[in-house]
Amino acid sequence: MSDMDYEFDDYQEDNFDDFDDFPDDDFPDDDFPDDDFPDDDFPDDDFPDNDDFPDDGDEDENEEWDDIDFSGMDNQEDIFYLSLDRYQDQEIETAANGFKRILEIEEENEEKGEWGFKALGYLVIIEFKQENYKEACVRHEILLNYVVDSLVSTNDSKSVLDEIFNEVGSGNDQQVKIFSDLTLNTLKQAGKQKFWFEVSFKLAKILFKNKKYSQVIKAIKPLKSSCLDENEVPIPSKGNNLLEIYTLEIQIYTIYKDNKNLQDVYEKAIRMELESATIPHPQTLAIIHECGGKMHMVEKNWKEANKDFNLAFKSYDDVGSARKINCLKYMILAQILSLSNVDPFADHACAAHKNNPQIVAFNDLLRAYESNDIQKFETILEANRLTIMNDEFIISYIDHLMYNIRTEVLKHLVTPYTVVHIPWISKQLNIPEKDVETLLVSLILDDQIKGKIDQIKKLLVLQNNNIISDDDKYNALNKWNQQITSLHGTVINKLRS
Asked: What is the pTM for the complete model shown?
């Protein structure tokens, strides 16, 4: 054992069970699927996926197995795979005996290597699952010595540590802290800086997957520092590493709806993207731009949101991620809200998904909006409720959509008249009269309609040419500018005379 004192005996058993996680119901779980983020840092070699570590099962299926006496066996590879078979069939104790036998052989031969390392990996996980946390930690420290002494390949080291942290990462705060501190401190003290960074980042991603966001923020602080020089300026050779760190931060601030910090990190990420000496991974760029689009949506900056969702769509499309469909929907949503007349399907990449069942409904909404057909717009929303309303992000902007189309239709309805009955507008828009008055007040205050409301007679009284066009605004500003210029000339002339 090292000088590090873990003092597992000082913790009550329930300390390993309690963890107040951060709320995640404010943000849809499917917005950032775990398998979308590039996860090739730790290649899978002989060490199996976490699915190979079963928790429960039907013990009757194991009756066909005879007990194995590992004591008379000397071939470590054979013992490992026999033990692995037993483990996968939930003969946990038999499997553990096999893994322990491999360690005995290493001790007898005074030679450590691949099979002992992999056996230790399984034993750490077995002890952890059986809540023998102190023993798990002791075995983990022994396992780390194999890495420090370079007794195993880098790929084997990454693969085994990956599996261990997949298990430990689901534990409580204390468990995660003990195992992560032991691992990272050991690697750092051994001077394995590159390996330390890779393991640290992998651990941060596992914590993110398990929704332990506060721990992710703590885990990435030293990672960020390692990518900056003494003046806090990004080190060019570590640009992509820093960009991936920003990606984790951006996702967390999006989940927390912390737009202030989100905007700060987003702007840094965009600068890093432009200045990076190497091409960032498309998946990383996709996540940055998707979160950036959502940030702009919160700010009601629809045009910038549309641009970011478009970039996210293209990046997701490059890696074949299913998230591209979500971003295409978000792009159409921002398109409608921005009042733009640009056809999103004019782009070849977008047009390829025009007939996707999830996209058809949004395309229909776009066409109904462009034709100011509010009844069709509402009918499409109702008929495609499951397609459109199954995304909390989209749901949060339905009211904005309805406001936009109602105001556009309302302006179109009243244009030919000087006096309009509010009940008639209410019938045309299919909303209560009080909601019509609210819309009218908003349009009048925004100078989109020139007129006034007669609440007693329930009338909208309009001035001639009541709709204020962009040309009208431009002409008024131009006239104002000419008057100021003329006044300025007069004052100068008087001062000179």
From this structure: 0.70
